[in-house]
Automatic annotation (TrEMBL):
Residues 3-92 form the 2Fe-2S ferredoxin-type domain. This is CDP-6-deoxy-L-threo-D-glycero-4-hexulose-3-dehydrase reductase. The gene is ascD_2. The keyword DNA damage does not apply. The keyword Endoplasmic reticulum does not apply.
Amino acid sequence: MSYRIHVVETQATFTVEAGETVLDGALRAGVCLAHECTFGGCGTCRVQVVEGAVAYEDFPMALTEEEAATGAALACQARPTADLVLSVARGAEADIPAQRVTAVVREVGWLGPDVTHLRMELPEDIALQYAPGQYMKILLEDGTHRSFSMASAPQGNAVDFHVRRIAGGRFTATRLPTLQPGDRLEVEVPHGSFSLRKEDYRPLLMVATGTGLAPIKSMLESLMDDPDCPPVSLYWGARSAADLYLHNEIAAWGERLYDFQYVPVLSRAEDDWQGRRGHVQQAVSQDHGDLSEHAIYLCGSPNMIRDARQTFVALGAQSPFIYADSFTFQHA
């Protein structure tokens, strides 16, 4: 048995065979659907089921039961049980085409115990364009790639990254430690649908863990000194104070952002820590009884994003205004 899939925005049609996912069928037919991790952890392939129904072998981490009840689905895991009409939200990935270029390493240094600051520059004849929140693919010699979010707002042809070193990582544990200024890397940029939506006109709630701060930093830098900047609350979760690698810098952002609140939260805090303890999503729920008016950006571990979605929806957050980017580290 096969099912017919129709995409509203592009008018694309394709078939999905029994046992295939929506993404399987789209890729086989040459139909472009945004995707990244392919195992339900990142949420990049989120679509809206307008007509029809889907099922899952294992319910994906990047989707809540409440969201699924409203028709949200993840194409990489959803298996049709009927013909489908899908709506695909138009995001940054559709607006700015990716280009493959050679980037030059300009700076490499430590930000924290296991986080490297990497700064690269694209050739002068390339117009570097990306939406704050998007990521770059670093292409490796074996044909694979590693994905890292831009940690700086678009400005010129230089871009910053916060790269967490992963034990045994093909790039972070081998290539990254040997990089020197002047080295060249093949890259592809931009990618990803996680980006700042200024058109929402809502107070911003930014929630990050670890280097999930990187795309959030890119977004907030793009809002600095903007007279239309909405109120911003940033909750950053880490294990210890040493992992808050931009703590002092963030504390000064309030001078350039409107009504800025910064709340660091430690899950394994030392005895002398005077700030918040526990999980970052719990701190948000303690401070905000009603999230129905917020635009919410989540970036970090899949577990945090899953729990935060469930917690925040229970506090009135509206699913169309919850944007997430899950760092799964499968490409470390």
